């Protein structure tokens, strides 16, 4: 029997946030990949197979918005939930222009995040991971 599991990518520079989301979503039956930075996240997105991204707004180096811009070039339709400790309307407005419809403020309610992920993936088929070329 083949298992069709959704793959989530959690992008956050805070180890505690990554660990909490990894444990929660793994327990819920999702495959979870972690990235500490924008460049690491983009590398994982280029490999394919990611169904949804949970993305921190403020990270050192490449910001969440810059990562989001590059994500949209790679996959314009992938659902993204922005996570921020900063309720800055200007940043959220820019994220909305880039197609983000959902965000959570840190510290967030884990049940709310779980609900958002389920709702955003309800009508989507799991993405296929690129395993390489045979031949």
Automatic annotation (TrEMBL):
Positions of modified residues (4-aspartylphosphate): 56
Alphabetized UniProt keyword annotations: Phosphoprotein
Presence of keyword Phosphoprotein: yes
InterPro entries: Bact_response_regulator, CheY-like_superfamily, Sig_transdc_resp-reg_receiver
Keyword Phosphoprotein: yes
Domain of life per record: Bacteria
GO-annotated biological processes: phosphorelay signal transduction system
Limits of the Response regulatory domain: 7-121
Record function comment: May play the central regulatory role in sporulation. It may be an element of the effector pathway responsible for the activation of sporulation genes in response to nutritional stress. Spo0A may act in concert with spo0H (a sigma factor) to control the expression of some genes that are critical to the sporulation process.
Entry protein name: Stage 0 sporulation protein A homolog
Organism: Desulfofundulus salinus
